[in-house]
Structures are given as C-alpha cells and as structure tokens.
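Predict the 3D structure for this chain.
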Amino acid sequence: MKTIALTLIAAGMGFAQSQSATTASAAKQSPGAPPKAKTQVPKKATAAQKANPPQLTIPQGAKLVEPNLYRYTDSTGKAWMYRQTPFGISKFEDTPAAAQQAPAPGGPTTVTDLGDSVRFERKTAFGDSQWTRKKTELSDDEKALVASQQQGKQVSAQPDNKTAEKQ
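Done. Predicted structure below.
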C-alpha cells in the first residue's frame, strides 16, 4: 500500500513539474508578441549515427533467386547477393557454386570387409567413429566408400610393369 502511495506521489510531482516548465516559458514571452520562430541548427553526426550506417536497400534491377534472396550485378560486373532477414538486408558477394561445395563429410574412412558386413572407421573431431553395416543395408555413400576401397586394392594388387621387368 505504501509503495502504491509513493508511486502516485512521485508521478504527480513529475507531472506538476513538467506543466510548470511549459507555463514558465510561455510567461517569458511578451503577451502581444508573436511566438518566436525556432531556428533549425544543423546537427553534427553523433557517435550513434556514425556507428549505425544507413540501411541497405535491394537495388531496382535485382532478380529474385529464391524467397528473400536477390541477385544483382553492379556496373563493374561484380555479382552481389541481397538477403532479406528479420534484422534487415544483408549483402554478400556471389561466388560460383563449385567454390561453395563443402568437402566430403569426415575425413579418410577405413573400410574393412567382414564377410557379410562391412566395418567403417573414421577419425572425427570428437574421436574415432566406428560403425558396422550389413552389405545389403549399405547407403549410397557407404557403397561408394566400399567401391573406392575395392578399387584401391585392385590397383595396388596389380604388379607394376617396370618392377616386373627389373626382376
């Protein structure tokens, strides 16, 4: 109850103070004189304005690539991508698709044939990863790993012609 009373008193004092300031400024002017015109003084750029550059806009000639993503080529021939996000528009340079492709996940994988199943071993950032699959349940990526492993064995199993001639 005391808190409510103190809050109301503080709000009343603040309201009374703001009213007295406006009446005091009106009293300073002579009653017959027209109100003074306020002159506009250009403001210098503040630190906040320097820190916040003007907002980006999507150029008129930009083409829609996908929802909220636009491609624009500037006068120098450089391609730019504009993405509309909830926080504003972001601009980044368009790079070819071949450069954006990530390398295959993981690193070198060791494939061991166990008869009716295959064991895969790969070193990851979190330690060694091992898994075993039956040959009938292999995914496309795992089939490709098995094929590359078998191809590597066949190449190394064949004797080199130059070494055969020397012997």
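The first strand starts at residue 63 and ends at 66.
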